[in-house]
Amino acid sequence: MMVAEIAAGTWYGSMALVADGWHMSTHASAMLISAVAYLYARRQAHNPRFTFGTGKLGDLAGFASAIILALIALLMAYESVLRIANPVPISFSQAIGVAVLGLSVNVLSAWLLRDDHHHHGHAHGHSHGSHGNHAHPGSHAHHGDHAHHHGAHASHAARATDNNMRAAYVHVIADALTSVLAIAALLLGSLYGWLWLDPLMGIVGGVIIAQWAWGLMKASGAVLLDSLPAAGDLPKAIRTVVETDGDEITDLHVWQVGPGHHAAIVAVATSAPRAPSFYKEKLASLGQLSHVTVEVTQMAGKQAA
């Protein structure tokens, strides 16, 4: 379809059709990025060099796809401005036929991706056990422990947002949008002789695609930088679960390691120190946590009864 649109757009003089074709070609490359990311993530899932698994590879691929989308938007707008300044004759009926066929291909692709886009989860490959207690120097007793909870949280992971699959879905929807704009421009141009409308739709499509690219870039970039969503309630939920019976969290770090999977470092100060396993069992009720490190210290100046 990509080859057909580029060839037909060039032959029939439609900038909107040419833009749609090149748009589709770069999206094919972006889809390849997504596929390679999943393949690599699965193959490296048990590689101990990836401390928290390969869940972020999808976000890395999503970020790369967002950059490609932004470049496509700029190229479309630039080429469209040139065509407005230098219009060419358009064979409307033939170009419309090809554009309609292109739209049908994009709709079919979006339909095939719709379930994966909404339900794709993250298969976390590590199968770590507990790393045991760690001794820390100092006058107080410290207990460090690492807990990794995986398979039990599959249902939550299935509902998580996968930025890699989101990128693939957005690419297909963006293709469908440019096809709709091309058809609209060609129809109106054939009815009223508005040759300028064909390249103008290329500019409009570029602006919309740039907006989508920015949103995807922010979402995937935030995950890569270990930033939790502003509306995220996981840190609050951890405090609610742990801070009971006089226990107090003195240091808390939470970040996403894959769709639906988060890691947490929790430092607990208490007047009655208990084993880290006690707090790990309490935190096991939070399905979003896949990696947990707990450190327990005795509150200064307070001794257990």
Concise structural overview:
The protein is of the alpha+beta class and 305 residues long. Helix content is 58%, strand content 12%.
Describe the structure.
With 305 residues, the chain is of the alpha+beta class. The chain has two domains: 186 residues, Alpha-lytic protease prodomain-like; 107 residues, no CATH class. It is 58% helix and 12% strand. The protein is built from nine helices and four strands; from the N terminus they run H-H-H-H-E-H-H-H-H-E-E-H-E. A four-stranded mixed β-sheet has the order 1-4-3-2. Helix 2 packs antiparallel against helix 6. It is elongated, with a radius of gyration of 26 Å.
Uncertain runs are: 118-159
Per CATH, the architecture of the largest domain is Up-down Bundle
Biggest β-sheet: strands ordered side by side in the sheet: 1-4-3-2
Instruction: Give the helix tally.
Output: 9
Main β-sheet description: 4 strands, mixed
Q: What percent strand?
A: 5-15%
CATH topology of the largest domain: Alpha-lytic protease prodomain-like
Please indicate the count of domains.
Answer: 2
Helix fraction bin: 55-70%
CATH level 1 name of the largest domain: Mainly Alpha
Number of strands: 4
Distance between the termini: 76 Å
Instruction: Tell the overall outline.
Output: elongated
Structural class: alpha+beta
Would you list the SSEs in sequence order as H and E? HHHHEHHHHEEHE
